[in-house]
Inverse folding.
C-alpha cells in the first residue's frame, strides 16, 4: 500500500485563519507533509496568498485582490473572523511563505486562482520565485484552469502541474496525459478505488480534496492515494500512524 501524504488545505484551515502564516505554521507543527495555498496577483503584480477573487469573505476589507496593491492588502486582517484569538494576521505574499517554508521539510501545493481572472505571467512569476528560493524539488502547482497548467508545464516540465476538477471525469489519467501532465487533484466524491489504480498504472499522481470526514479520509488512504488534502491535518495524520 502506498504511503498517503497529508497536505494541510490552506494550512490548517479547520482551526486557524486560512492562507495565513499562523495556519501554515500550525500545519507544520502537527506534522503535515505539506501545505496547499492559493495565489492571486495584486495590482502591482505581486503573488499574494488568498483564496477568493475578493478580500471580503476572509478579511476585514472589501474589493478585488487584483485592484489592491500589496501595501493595501497588508493592512487587512485575514483573521478578523476569529475575533482576536490569533491576533492580526496579514495576507502573506508567496515570497514570505517560501522564505519560511524553505527552512522546513514541507512540500508546497501552489494553486493558481486564475480561472476567471486572467493574470498574465502568473506561471512564469511563480516558477521564477520557486527557483529563487530553491524550492523546485518541493513545490507542485495546481489549478482549475487547465490551460494554465499546460502553460506552466511548457515553461518547466520538471515542476509538477496538476489539474483540479469537481465533476466526474471519464478516464482522467488519459485526459491529463493528453495535456502532457502527470497529476490530478479531483474532488473526493469523484474518486473510486479503480480510478486511483488506473492513475497509478499510467504514472499519474492523484491527490483528492478537501477531505474532513474521518470515514472518507480512511477510504482515500485505503485506496493508496498519493496524498489527501484536508482542513484538519492533525486528524488525518492520526489515521496513517
Amino acid at each position: 500500500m502506498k504511503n498517503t501524504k497529508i497536505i494541510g488545505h490552506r494550512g490548517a484551515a479547520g482551526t486557524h485563519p486560512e492562507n495565513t502564516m499562523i495556519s501554515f505554521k500550525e500545519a507544520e507543527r502537527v506534522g503535515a507533509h505539506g501545505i496547499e495555498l492559493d495565489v492571486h496577483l495584486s495590482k502591482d503584480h505581486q503573488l499574494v496568498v488568498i483564496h477568493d477573487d475578493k478580500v471580503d469573505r476572509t478579511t476585514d476589507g472589501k474589493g478585488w485582490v487584483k485592484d489592491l496593491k500589496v501595501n493595501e492588502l497588508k493592512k487587512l486582517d485575514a483573521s478578523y473572523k476569529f475575533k482576536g484569538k490569533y491576533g492580526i494576521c496579514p495576507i502573506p505574499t508567496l515570497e514570505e511563505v517560501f522564505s519560511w517554508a524553505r527552512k522546513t521539510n514541507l512540500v508546497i501545493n501552489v494553486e493558481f486562482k486564475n480561472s476567471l481572472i486572467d493574470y498574465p505571467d502568473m506561471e512564469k512569476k511563480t516558477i521564477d520565485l520557486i527557483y529563487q528560493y530553491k524550492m523546485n524539488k518541493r513545490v507542485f502547482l495546481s489549478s482549475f484552469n487547465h490551460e494554465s497548467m499546460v502553460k506552466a508545464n511548457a515553461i518547466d516540465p520538471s515542476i509538477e502541474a496538476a489539474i483540479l476538477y469537481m465533476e466526474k471525469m471519464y478516464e482522467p489519467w488519459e485526459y491529463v496525459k493528453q495535456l502532457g501532465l502527470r497529476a490530478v487533484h479531483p474532488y473526493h466524491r469523484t474518486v473510486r478505488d479503480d480510478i486511483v489504480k488506473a492513475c497509478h498504472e499510467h504514472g499519474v499522481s492523484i491527490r483528492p480534496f478537501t477531505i474532513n470526514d474521518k470515514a472518507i479520509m480512511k477510504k482515500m488512504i485505503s485506496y493508496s492515494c498519493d496524498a489527501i488534502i484536508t482542513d484538519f491535518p492533525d486528524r488525518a495524520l492520526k489515521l496513517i500512524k
Notes: The beta strands are 5-9, 34-41, 47-49, 107-112, 139-143, 161-165, 183-186, 205-206, 227-230. The mean pLDDT is 98. The first helix runs from residue 21 to 30.
